[in-house]
């Protein structure tokens, strides 16, 4: 095999965005070694941000400029769906860095390693969404997971952070083991294939072993999605981990999980398609109900957002459970919007915590008087998560419900609608604290709220993140046409989603009856 | 033109939010006046000889899911849009002293509510309707929760949950309706939906879902329990807006979607709905009689008066429908007037308790003008000829009597009971003697009386010249009625074949 054909087989252009992230990661490490102290803390985040921007730009180029998406002998697939998911992960890392700088500065921890771990988590997530082969899947999954454990235990002087990391590690490692066992079953059943599509073509009969493998794979994936009943780590890890890390975990890590779930389940389990959709219906119902109902009772903002993210994952899984093209598109669409809504909420929470040192919901009381911008941004993001028009979340939910109705999943849509009313209750509770309370009902933290200065280290990026997510959340719904066609296009032009389309039970039926 | 009606308040609200406190008031007054002028222009431009949507605007938006920005105005929405403009203008220009704190936020929210209500009434796409319908939710929640009585937090949450459920039901109804035809793309365009002929059982199911959704908002009797709390705990301008126009979204939806889209099912269910409406009227009146708080009394009177509209819709004759729209406008004006006056009394006297109020008609130390206007408003509400309430109610009764005599008689009894509780209210409030120990009430300034005078002027004018109340919607109501009438034959045949003994007329 000569170099040219090897190069063609490897097709390393497909992983250009990841290469850029790796380059950035190395650069951050090197600069951290050379520059020291204050100076490195100032310059490193900028390098990482620039790297992630470049990586996103490369993804934008890939959208149209990439001729052959298959790379590395078929183990990596840079199709449109993976491009969108990778872009969401890269952007979530980008925003995470923007909101972290202030947090790291205040908690007095080292910036360099944090960025390196975050970037490697990003890398793991990006590879995970494009992996088409089991070894690759497992390697990237572990890259993401191990980095996540490290990140959640990063503030090591805080006992809660340590506890969170330990909990996350134990649960995560166990779920990885189960996932790995499921994959080993698949490997055996298919007579020694590791590529997902080859497995599908080799396994010709659906038997108990295949179902067991599927259940084990779903158990591993659901841990990443924090789908009920694999969610128990979420509230504790979210509460203990550093807040910017939670922002990344609730978006980047989850999106990577969704990317993996889609590709793995659809490609490797065409025979068990009915079964895994059924399992996802159950997971959706449980996640929506538990996430949203338990969130009502929370007193800490972080825990509330943890349960809310379980509930939100339930809404997204609805798009997956209904098994239709519109369902997958609505899921992609919602994840794009979710990136900005959730990131905005976390950014506001970080800003509030950095000014007052607390994240209790009751401490937000009367904030409108002291900090209107924060009040506005947090209200908009939370209401958008609750699905209030004309904010982004409304359109995201509308599309999911629409797709669900199209696929005749009436019960799921009705439940989701009821749960979105429930979610409105706890989202509006925070808004009520901030906006409605009178000056005399102001909480102690807000009474001592420091004057607003944007000159401290890390405040400018935080402000930029808040303003950007605020504007996006407010506008993206009304002007959602580009994002809308983007997600539709991603699903239409992704091969593995199309390959299964003839088998889809409901949607494929509709156009044919019309003819 | 129609877009301007929606976007002017939205943009106005954004600009006002950025202006400093001192200039925001002027800005809001300019915006509200501009809206009012636009409404007047709209009334002038409107061609009363057409039944179809006029001044339509169509822009593709999210075409993939069928959500298009399509607006249009017809005789059904026009009077309500104008009423919306009028009430917003009155509230923004004259209600500052009922609000006192954080007036800027209040103005912003009020303009957003206005935009949402206008948008819902003008949209001819069902998904767009839902969007605007839900848009009103949060500003109203905030406006109830920030300004008002002691229990406002509870009342606001109750309102929020009831209304959110109502929105869910409406959305479910529209999604289901849109997907009914085996098209690859669903239909959410109102005019297209009107042309569908659906199987009867599907119609009934969807009708029940939508009817529930709109009944919560309007509200009709068993779904009304948010109303007394919310109305009583809200500040005066809020409740003027809420009762005057926002609740009309429910009845508007009833006319537009329930009657307009499911004529067969409507014709079939109408007798039951008429009985429901009759009972609602009686219930509202009976409960109002037993109240000790004047605001609560007016709130329950509102429940009774909204049920007339349900009765009018049930009959669906051209006359009753026009009376129904007349009743929406008249109830909006009268309720706004009554709540405004109650607000003035509460502010000046310091109580709303019927056992403590007395002798306010006293020319020197009482509140004579306010009391006089209150008597007039009470009379308008009770259906005294010469005022707008009589016209609307009479049209409704005349339109419904031939079809549903018993529920109509119920409602007429209800009107009598309305007179009873308003006489109780007026007797305890305006007549009698002032208590010498407490009667040192602040004066009511001319500016404070102006909104009430404007509303009273309109109530008398429309009562004497009712053409101005009904001429807008003649054609539109005839069109809806024809649909139902034409289908009554069909459904009668159907019901005969189903041998249902309950349908008699």
From TrEMBL, chain A:
It comes from the Bacteria. Coiled coil: none annotated. It is found in: Cellular thylakoid membrane; Endomembrane system; Membrane. Residues 131-422 form the NADH:quinone oxidoreductase/Mrp antiporter transmembrane domain. It is an enzyme of class 7 (translocase). InterPro entries: NADH-Q_OxRdtase_suN/2, ND/Mrp_TM, Ndh2_N. Residues 9-101 form the NAD(P)H-quinone oxidoreductase subunit 2 N-terminal domain. Its EC number is 7.1.1.-. Keywords: Membrane, NAD, NADP, Plastoquinone, Quinone, Thylakoid, Translocase, Transmembrane, Transmembrane helix, Transport. The chain crosses the membrane at residues 12-31, 43-63, 83-101, 108-128, 134-154, 166-189, 209-233, 245-266, 278-297, 304-322, 328-352, 373-395, 407-428, 464-484. It catalyses: a plastoquinone + NADPH + (n+1) H(+)(in) = a plastoquinol + NADP(+) + n H(+)(out); a plastoquinone + NADH + (n+1) H(+)(in) = a plastoquinol + NAD(+) + n H(+)(out). It is a multi-pass membrane protein. Belongs to the complex I subunit 2 family. NDH-1 shuttles electrons from an unknown electron donor, via FMN and iron-sulfur (Fe-S) centers, to quinones in the respiratory and/or the photosynthetic chain. The immediate electron acceptor for the enzyme in this species is believed to be plastoquinone. Couples the redox reaction to proton translocation, and thus conserves the redox energy in a proton gradient. Cyanobacterial NDH-1 also plays a role in inorganic carbon-concentration. NDH-1 shuttles electrons from NAD(P)H, via FMN and iron-sulfur (Fe-S) centers, to quinones in the respiratory chain. The immediate electron acceptor for the enzyme in this species is believed to be plastoquinone. Couples the redox reaction to proton translocation (for every two electrons transferred, four hydrogen ions are translocated across the cytoplasmic membrane), and thus conserves the redox energy in a proton gradient. NDH-1 can be composed of about 15 different subunits; different subcomplexes with different compositions have been identified which probably have different functions. This is NAD(P)H-quinone oxidoreductase subunit 2.
Automatic annotation (TrEMBL), chain B:
Its EC number is 1.6.5.-. The chain crosses the membrane at residues 6-21, 28-46, 66-93, 105-122, 128-147, 159-182, 202-227, 239-262, 268-289, 309-342, 372-397, 404-426, 450-470. Residues 123-415 form the NADH:quinone oxidoreductase/Mrp antiporter transmembrane domain. It is a multi-pass membrane protein. One of its GO terms (molecular function) is oxidoreductase activity. It is found in: Endomembrane system; Membrane. Keywords: Membrane, Oxidoreductase, Transmembrane, Transmembrane helix. Pfam families: Proton_antipo_M (PF00361). The keyword Membrane applies. It comes from the Bacteria. NDH-1 shuttles electrons from NAD(P)H, via FMN and iron-sulfur (Fe-S) centers, to quinones in the respiratory chain. The immediate electron acceptor for the enzyme in this species is believed to be plastoquinone. Couples the redox reaction to proton translocation (for every two electrons transferred, four hydrogen ions are translocated across the cytoplasmic membrane), and thus conserves the redox energy in a proton gradient. Belongs to the complex I subunit 4 family. This is NADH-quinone oxidoreductase subunit M. It comes from Pseudanabaena yagii GIHE-NHR1. The lineage of its organism: Bacteria, Bacillati, Cyanobacteriota, Cyanophyceae, Pseudanabaenales.
